[in-house]
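Narrative summary of target 7.
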Amino acid sequence: MSQMGRVSLVGAGCGDYDLITVRGMQILGECDVVIYDALIDIRLLSFAKKAEKFSVGKRAGKYSSTQEEINSLIIKNAMKGKNVVRLKGGDPFVFGRGGEEAIALKQANIDFEIVPGISSAIAAAELAGIPVTHRDVSRSFEVITANTMRNDFPDDFSRLASSDGTLVFMMGLKKIMQIADNLILNGVDKATPSAVISNGATSRQKVVRAPLCDIARVVSEEELEPPAVFVVGKTAELELTTKLNKKLSGVSVCVTGSQNIVNRMSKLLENDGANVLSLPCLEIIKKADNPSLKAALQNIESFRCAAFTSASGVEAFFEALVKECIDLRRLSNIKLAAVGKSTARAIEKHGIFTDFIPDVATSKKLAQMLCERFDKSEKILIARAKNGSDDLTKILDNSNMCYEDIKVYETKALQLNPPQNCKYYIFASTAGVRAFFEMGGKVNDDSYAICIGKPTQNELEKRKVKNISISKSSSVESIENTIFLIKRKNNNAQI
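Modeled conformation, tokenized:
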């Protein structure tokens, strides 16, 4: 019988992926299986690089696995000897059913650990500038779920109404009116400050404040969506946030591509105030057994240059170096070329600086640069995706260059639900475009597709996308400049 695995009940925190704990991130990077909820930031999955991934839903109004099915899935994988992470939004034990899963694991005699997470009960409110406690206003707080195991309603409103602390209702957006009416009927002043925070701790966060008697109407008018936290009490009228004037405030952007691209670009755009919807629609699959790459690395000195068209190709190349025990010093006489700055940064992480970067980040420009810099007799190693652009090899062939085009990884389209209402969509590759449309994505006629490179533009044109702009590079600065140009053009047209 195989050795029993271990289970970690990990709180992913609320909102953005970087609110997970350091311990949670470490365990995620080491696990064999991830079983995750719908409310986690999907970017977290990119850190579980070697793990098999199972989505079990758990979102109001949509189909999800039953708790019994989830328990069974956790136990089944642990009994196969796998280390399992049950990744849960917020904290596992704050209305996250972590207790039920822990009981099931104890009954099955499976070892488990609990990794706390930041709960939206506190964090969503405080990031909206609402402290759940304040010495001069509220010395306590209570967290209440609007849904129970029987899907009924809290029945202790008389007790809740007598509280002099802050009340925090979770999972109750559809019951705002019922909650407010019951509190008022049981003696809470109808003018009591209240607030609802939708999509807390993310760039999509939206906050409304109103007296308790008006909060349901305001929520309906503002069309708030779940997940949401409902706060009732004197602290709800506080607004303890700073107002920063950020470059992309109010701009909605969907970032597509591989998880590495989406993680990096989304965070930078969010830092500049954009309302970002991350769509990691491509999974990078590195070739575990790659005879061509292995042979090339064993004879690495025969190459004059190694060229890379993506950060994923860089990662696959250097991982193979380590696997084949190739000393980095054997690269001392080899020039390194990168298609753009982000690919060059991936090379620099390994302590080596790129020798050549074309002025425009395209495969075509990279190929032209290689032809200009090297003689026909000098051998070039190209490490890139299986379905890489033909532009590169056509130019090299036409110039009779000597090269080896080695496929170090391939991309696989993921099945996610693409947003339909963004103003800007960012596409970094033709594969990303194909994956986006294969999963049912659509760029509306009043939206804009910002692409990196002519091949990506061509792929979008095949899909009849109306408004397409090419960013000069894959840098966030270049993408922001492209957005500004579009906005300025539209503003001038309206004058």
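The first strand starts at residue 7 and ends at 11.
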